[in-house]
Design goal:
5-stranded parallel beta sheet, globular, 203 residues, mainly beta
C-alpha cells in the first residue's frame, strides 16, 4: 500500500489457458493503473495478456521485482515475463514504466500504438552499449502488427533496450516520433545485421 511504502504486486496469471481472443478483441480486458500518487508502484510478477489496452494514468508500473527483494507473506519465483497488449499502450504524464533489476529478460508485445507522455525505462542503462548484453533486468519492446502501421510517440524520456519490428511487407510501417532528441534512447546490444527491406527516414 502507499501508506506502508510496500508496492502492489500483480502476482497471479492474467492468461486463461482455455481462452483464445480473436483479432477484434472479443474477450475484452484492459488494464488501467491510476494510483493515488505518481510514486505509487505496481510490480508485475506474472504473464499478462490484454486483449485491449494497457494504460498507466498515474503511478509506476514495474516489470518484475528488483534483485533479491522480498515481500512479507509472498513466495516469488524469478522468471522472464511475457506481457501482450493487443491494442494500445499509453503512459500518462503522471505515469511511468520501470524495469526491475533482477537478471531477467522480459517481452512486451504491442499490436497497437504506444504513446509515452510519462517516462519509460526498459533498461537500467543510461548510455548505449552495443557490444554487450545487459544482465540487470531488461524489457524487449516488440511491435508485431503485420497488417497495420503502428506508431510510437516519445513525448517524454524513453530508454529502450531493444525494439523488434515484425512486419509482413515493406509497405507496413512502424513510425517513431520524438518531441526531443533526448526522449528517444536505444541502449541495448546492437551488433547484429538487419533485413534488406529495413529503412530509416526522417530528419
Amino acid at each position: 500500500s502507499a501508506a506502508s511504502g510496500t508496492p502492489l504486486l500483480l502476482n497471479q496469471d492474467f492468461v486463461s489457458a482455455n481462452v483464445i481472443a480473436d483479432a477484434n478483441g472479443a474477450i475484452s480486458r484492459s488494464l488501467t493503473l491510476n494510483m493515488d500518487l505518481p510514486t505509487d508502484r505496481v510490480i508485475v510478477q506474472r504473464d499478462v495478456y490484454l486483449t485491449r489496452n494497457l494504460t498507466v494514468t498515474q503511478g509506476q508500473l514495474q516489470f518484475h521485482r528488483n534483485n533479491a527483494t522480498a515481500y512479507a507473506d509472498l513466495t516469488i519465483t524469478d522468471a522472464s515475463l511475457d506481457v501482450t497488449v493487443v491494442n494500445d499502450l499509453a503512459v500518462g504524464t503522471n505515469g511511468s514504466i520501470r524495469t526491475g533489476t533482477a537478471n531477467q529478460r522480459h517481452q512486451l508485445d504491442v499490436f497497437g500504438n504506444a504513446t509515452f507522455n510519462g517516462t519509460a525505462y526498459f533498461t537500467q542503462r543510461t548510455a548505449a552499449d552495443i557490444s554487450n548484453e545487459a544482465t540487470d533486468g531488461i524489457v524487449d519492446l516488440n511491435f508485431l502488427n503485420q497488417a497495420t502501421d503502428q506508431t510510437v510517440a516519445c513525448n517524454a524520456e524513453v530508454r529502450f533496450y531493444r525494439i523488434e519490428i515484425d512486419k509482413s511487407a515493406p509497405t507496413v510501417f512502424l513510425n517513431i516520433t520524438s518531441t526531443s532528441a533526448s526522449n528517444f534512447n536505444l541502449f541495448g546490444f546492437a551488433n547484429d545485421g538487419f533485413d534488406t527491406d529495413f529503412e530509416v527516414g526522417g530528419v
